[in-house]
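Q: What would this chain look like folded?
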Amino acid sequence: MPDIINTLLPIALAFIMFAVGITLVPADFKRLFEQPRAVIVGLVGQLVMLPLVAWGLAFAFRLPPEMAVGLVILGACPGGASSALVTYLARGTAALSVTLTATTSLVALLSMPLIVQGALHAFMGTDSTVDVSVAKLVRGVFFISTVPVVLGMVLRAWRPQLVDRTQAAIGRIATTLFVLIVIATFLSQRQVLFDNLSTVGPAAASLNLIVMLAGAGAAIAMRLDRRDAIAIASECGLQNAGLGIFIAINVLATPSLAVPSVVYALLMNVGAFGLIAIARRWVRS
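A: My prediction, written as structure tokens:
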């Protein structure tokens, strides 16, 4: 099982990020200038608040070193491919969600390696056997996250009609691959997962709830539209757990670091259903 995961995980994750890319057009990035307040709040929420909350919860719950690092890795991941769908179902601003997902997926090339390296040193010490090479982390994020997103955007610009015909199918395949990644990682790390579920579970659930509430709260404090607040809450709460699993298994070669991402991948769907139910009523009111 580990050999299969090591081989197929990069391919599957790259395809998932490609599926994100084909939903994007250059106009999505224009919103960085057209709607700067909403975008800035969302970016600060994802790139600053989320890693800090993950870091704080790792200390607050006194997680074992590897679980603490895994939680911070998850907190450093960009928004997930499902966040735009959840935003749409929750009656949020889907365009803002897409913009934030695209931007954070590209910025992660710079932010993730620094955050992950800091977590490794803080929780596991400089004498850790885990490879903390920033160059290796940058390569991993670049080839698995940034490049597929850019290629997806290029294909959409080059063959828009082809993308329109196949986008739904590609999205379904990407969703299926993500589910398979979570299941495969769960099976390969089930003993570590069971051993740490009682500590990682509450921390992961707390992370999901806190960042969604904080994201919506920050948007309201900045007097943004309710729909924008919903989009920001969705982006903060629905992370690219697949990338967290990839970083743990393929880049750092420490599968146990993937446990928080696996747990979060399961729990964040509960949070997503809750967000949809509450947000739809909030918008109607």
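The domain at 2-284 is CATH 1.20.1530.20 (Na+/H+ antiporter like fold).
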